[in-house]
Amino acid sequence: MRKRDSQKQRFDDLMANLASDNEVSDVRVPIHLSEYEPIVRETWKNCDDFKVAMMEIGSTKLMITWLRGLVDRQAMQIGIFEPLTGLDGSDLHDLGQSVESRMAAAPIKHCATMAAVSKSMASGCVVIYQDGLDSVIGVDMNNMPGKAIEASQSEPVIEGPQEAFTESLDINVAMLRKRFRNPKFKVEATELGELTRTTVSILYVEGLAPADLVAEVRQRLSRINIDAILDINLIREMTKDAPWSPFPTTESTERPDKVIAGLVQGRIAIAANGATHMLLAPTLFVQSLMASEDMYSNFWIVTPIRLLRHIMFWSSILLPSLYVSLLSYQQDLIPTPLLISLIGQHEGIPFPTVFEAFLMQFFFEALREAGQRLPRAVGQSVSIVGGLVIGDAAVNAGIVSPGMVIVVAATGISSFTIASYTLVNTSRVLQFCFLLSSGLLGLYGVVILGIMLTTHMVSIRSYGIPYMAPYAPMVIPDMKDSILRAPWWLMRTRPQIYSVTNEVRNRTPQPRPQTDQ
Amino acid sequence: MRRWRRVQIITLTLAMTLGLPGCTRDLAEVDSINLVLAFGVDEVANMVRVSAEIVLAQGAQGGAQQATGPQYMVADATGPTIEQAMNKLNTQVPRQLFLPHNTLVIFGKQYAEHGIERSFDYLDRDRNFRRNELILVTSGEARDLLKAPTTPEGINAMGLRQLVEQYSENSPVAMSQQLRVIREYMQASNAPIMTQLDLDSKNSPVVSGVGIFQGPQLVGSLNTEQSQGLFWMIGPTRDIVLNVPCQGKSGVDIGSTFRVLATKVKVSPIITGGKANIHVRLRGKAELERACPDLQLNVEAMNKMEQALNQEVELRMRETMKTLQDKGTDTAQFGTAMFQQHPRLWRRYSGEWDNLFQHATVTYDVKIHLLRTGLSATGPTVDYTRAQLPPKSGREAKVK
Prior knowledge:
By secondary structure, chain A is an alpha+beta fold. Chain A has helices at 2-19, 33-43, 73-85, 89-94, 114-122, 169-179, 211-222, 232-238, 256-264, 285-288, 299-328, 336-346, 353-373, 376-396, 402-416, 421-441, 443-459, and strands spanning 50-57, 60-67, 108-111, 125-130, 136-140, 185-192, 198-205, 251-253, 268-272, 278-281, 461-462, 465-466.
């Protein structure tokens, strides 16, 4: 009776500990099954996927627990149940009373505390408790559900690697390791998210990434204290240098080749389990307007294309506001024939230009959002309806002027050319700010906001690196891969702005035909 | 706490920018302005009449609706000053007058004869006007010129400007922009040049030469031929086509035609013994557009033609100069040349320059080089014989 009371007491303490979220790490695995079983059952109560098998080998009782769906059933059959059923009590005695050596499955880990037991079960282990031992073995039978490796959706290339990351960190790291066969490629793991316990890894190349940068990343990650990490964007927002800035000061990518390219530049990648994207840091503004294809295609075309993207980025921010300020305030800046045709277009339009612009931009954004939220098959009909309604009917009905439709369409197209989706969203936000200020103050407002924006852009940093480098500050050697893209045989050094330990990356001489001796 | 303060300061600063004397007051939608492309200034019964040409922009919506009817209207108002007349226009025509796109200011004869300098201050001072607007003069009323159609150009002001631009291809002087005219007015010669537009017998506007001014007052005009003589004396010219009659042959559409490709001029005025001597040195290049019928082109013939061309150019300049000296207006800008080359001499004689100019001896040195004969060396019909003989150049020794 007293014994049962004390047991009850211990159990209650344990549950209290669990409830108070103070972790069960200090609770060691009990020696007797009679104590162990209720704890486990209570911990995993109301969990339908929690499965238990009780076995008896000779006089030894075994309790085997796992989570259905996370483990490979066939492997469990071959690796655990078959060897165990072949044993009898005397065998077990000979084996030093442990079933461990008879397991045909590979990675086995020992869990000494109840917290470790829960954790290993949640990560796809089959946990075997043997009565009389104070540690539990977890056999890794992990068969986590997940989707297969697919081609990159958000950063497609025509020529170049197609693979994209999956939601599984292990597979993602493997995809990187496949491309980077060198022990200098380091993967430091830590766990974030008090409830989800998501594995978050810091990836870097030893000897390239500056040690203080690695330390800085570690330190920033260690400050994260949140219940759940669902996507890499949480980490991005919680480790940002300028938390209020609309600009992405870290680059997110779903392409393994892009991560490798970043790592060999001396940058650092941050990956989280469950996220299809990895973060690259530090990141410069120019990098948001680069596509991975830039490095896989002819350098002659890349520089003009990058220039185009920069122009398009600024047009996507400024076009509507410039149009509004020219039409509502500074009509004297428009060439006369154009002004005459604009006046003609605007004849009979009931709204002021700025309202018209807001209306059109609003509907355009609504259409874009609708297309994004709907299933792909329906998305097409949205664009047809939207195109007809906004493009044609609104003009015919005399609600908006054709010029405004052109400007909004041009703005939309400009924003589609931006390689980084995060930066697209930045431009979508800024565009409305500019529109508002141009509606209030005309070109003067655009200039004022432009000055503020430029000031902001040159003052923010990404992990200590100035965001607008290599232009502000000017780092001439780094210009080789900014708006300009030099041919590969000229890119001899790594970007200086990251202050990498080892600068030279390429010793290939300029290619030339071999001369006959 | 400090951060909150910062946010407050930033918000306050942003809010204060709204109060700055920005453009908010200037907010005007494009469909609430009257785009003025040209205005005419006439003097009528001791009052100034301003006729503004306002564009009637045709709606482009609906697609199918094509532009019909006039694309502009001319509204006029009379007042004691240009500005007052302008302001009066605002009370007569709905929508605000919008002047920054104004490209033409046309002065009617009467206003110009009484002095255009009265309007200079307004044109130069008002922030709405651009200094590249053309200042033109007409021998009739500016309003009539603005009302005349300039087919195929739908908007009269655009058509007029186009006419002047085409005319100014011969000489930049014809492009009488406000900045240039006011500058010319203030130069030593004190004789601005303005292109003159008039209505022809079919009531459509044509360039009729240049108006010549004695100071601010219009005193007469040079027709297009006389204007060519003036252009050669003032500065570089381009592409002036010149017809010289053939010796011994006359008739309709006969003569040799030259295209004077480019000329440069150097004017050297000097005052000796109380008399002005002005030497005009003209150098240029020309090509043959048409030769006299049956002319065999050889070195001698080319030299003769060159001579004839030079004489013709000199004659034109002499005629123009005679007109100018008769009127006593130094439109050829000799006074300015005098001031630029001999400023001290100019200061001494500037008071009596009008008199000196009227009796000045002008000498000419014209050398225009005939560069080429166009695409054919001889005329296409020179070698024709009824007997169908081969060309002369090939048969001289063999066939008679």
